[in-house]
Amino acid sequence: MKKNKAVVVFSGGQDSTTCLFWALNKYDEVEAVTFDYNQRHNEEIEAAKEIANDLNIKHHVLDMSLLSQLAPNALTRHDIDVKDGEDGELPSTFVPGRNLLFLSFAAILAKQIGAKHVITGVCETDFSGYPDCRDVFIKSLNVTLNLSMDDEFVVHTPLMWLDKAQTWELADELNAFDYVREYTLTCYNGVRGDGCGECPACKLRRNGLDAYLKQKAEVAE
């Protein structure tokens, strides 16, 4: 009997780690792929490696350093401040073409290892305005990937319609709440777990955590 196999686009952050647990719960075989695009801090890749090793997941790290040369941004340049978008502009952390390239290469990897499922943690609810996190983009790319390789991949987005509180809830349902909270790296300043508490990523993560814990406490009363 042919096994269901999946590839998870994996950064070692809250969202992708939650997706990794989601995939482990759903598929017979799961592999993870992390992209090295000269991120602001190498700690992200190290976190991904350690989590994959801890969960006994085959882990691929692919060189995508060209992306940082083509699209300078706050995630790859220390001389660009991390800040939210103003007056309708995208945040300084937006990397043009990132998810287009990541998902394309993830699908190429999937083709090589016989996987039909590609999982990514993009989300339209808490997506900071990133155009490549929208559902319409994912659906469009899914069609393009299938046409380009004459295959039948399915790109899954378990978090697409969840806010951060609901993402914490999903991790809890997957019995991964404590793991995700302690070992993942979301912080733009490279601090694992609850992070620095000051950068936009940490604030979004913390607000979602507080909202979920409050909701959970109310249900328990």
Overview of this structure, please?
With 221 residues, the chain is an alpha/beta fold. Helices cover 45% and strands 11% of the residues. The protein has helices spanning 14-26, 43-54, 66-70, 98-113, 135-149, 164-173, 177-183, 200-220, and strands at 5-9, 29-36, 58-63, 117-119, 154-156. The protein has a five-stranded parallel beta sheet, with helices on both faces. Helix 6 crosses helix 8. It starts with a strand and ends with a helix.
Task: Outline the fold blueprint.
Blueprint: E1 5-9, H1 14-26, E2 29-36, H2 43-54, E3 58-63, H3 66-70, H4 98-113, E4 117-119, H5 135-149, E5 154-156, H6 164-173, H7 177-183, H8 200-220
Parallel strand pairs: 1-2, 1-4, 2-3, 4-5
Defining key terms:
221 residues, alpha/beta, five-stranded parallel sheet, 8 helices, 11% strand, globular
Short overview:
With about 220 residues, the chain is of the alpha/beta class. It is built from 8 helices and 5 strands; from the N terminus they run βαβαβααβαβααα.
